[in-house]
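Lab notebook, bench 4. Still working through the backlog of constructs that have no structural model yet. Next entry is a single chain of 287 residues. Request: give me the structure tokens for it.
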Amino acid sequence: MNKVPNNKAWWLVLPVFLLVAFSAVIPMMTVVNYSVQDIFDQSSRYFVGADWYRQVLQDPRLHDSLLRQFVYSGCVLLIEIPLGIAIALTMPTKGRWSSLCLIVMAIPLLIPWNVVGTIWQIFGRADIGLLGASLNRLGISYNYAANTMDAWVTVLVMDVWHWTSLVALLCYSGLRAIPDVYYQAARIDRASAWAVFRHIQLPKMKNVLLIAVMLRFMDSFMIYTEPFVLTGGGPGNATTFLSQTLTQMAVGQFDLGPAAAFSLVYFLIILLVSWLFYTAMTHADKD
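Model written out:
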């Protein structure tokens, strides 16, 4: 007896599709529309084709911001992923201390991005900030508002302080999901702590690490609020990343056409690099 397929369940999914279309597809199509037009006012719009894309791709501001963005995201991943794994390995697994550690690790994630920037702006000030004033009293010349390296290090340390907890919590959940029989077998074989980490814990955390790498890359590549509040993109353009360059173009100069083309190029770069990360890590997992 052949069963008649029942497709009524698709009606339950329809609201999700409508919500995605309203919140993502329609704004995206609006940006695509702006990227191929030269807009003077509501009634004066001229089709320019791919002119804005060519202008944006040849813009040295895009090249400089893109290089800074890749360097920054690379530094974030190189620091936060190993640090998050190390913290997760040292966190207790049972008792009250485990709950306390989870609460403490979650606190930085609850702080709004603009508040994080404000906290570090005050904390790093050379005159009244605890960090800046302490370093200067120790004879270390520190001023994130005037020195490029100081600004870079401060923005990077701020991001590490804010987001390493996310990596640590993800890794901790991956460690807690490993069955105890693996550890029992390792104890029977008298495996060292390094051998347990290399052959049991790290392979079992690969999927969690994939999520951590993807989330931290995408978030660090789109960073805007924290460095804008802390340094305003300075000194000079030292901490002006892609999102700030895009904002200056769209809001500061009101160049809607080039800004729309810039945003689509920005989106495609994030999509491409994320896909490369995902492909590389999933292939490594299969091997």
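Notes after review: The chain has 13 helices and two strands. The mean pLDDT is 85. Flag for follow-up if needed.
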